[in-house]
Amino acid sequence: MNKAIVLFAHGSRDPLWRAPMEAVATRIATQHPDRRVSCAYLELCTPTLPDAVRQLVDEGATTVTVVPMFVGTGKHAREDLPQLVQALRAAHPGVQFHVQASIGEDPRMTALMAEIACESPSA
């Protein structure tokens, strides 16, 4: 299991906020048992991105894909994340890092959100 995925999100003090992120991680782990997956947060909860990556590398990850779980490409995706990844590359020179576009920028996600928005309300 040398490939790992980190689902990177903003974070919240509310523990219920994490549930959807953790559900995505669980689904990945179920559908791709050959890959380690972890959630990481920019602030307000743990683990941080550096902590999550350190654990994955300690467990043998040599390739880490960071998936920004943001609806759009705002400041966190444009500025904060590249700085964090640059520091990760320096801290783990033997690890390949890939950063995907923000999840909300994917046309499949846009289509799914539009489909959900157009559903008839359940009464």
From TrEMBL:
Cross-referenced SUPFAM superfamilies: Chelatase
InterPro entries, alphabetized: CbiX-like, Sirohydro_Cobaltochel/CbiX
Protein name: CbiX/SirB N-terminal domain-containing protein
UniProt entry keywords in alphabetical sequence: Lyase, Metal-binding
Keyword Iron-sulfur: no
Domain of life of the source: Bacteria
Keyword Metal-binding in record: yes
Pfam families per record: CbiX (PF01903)
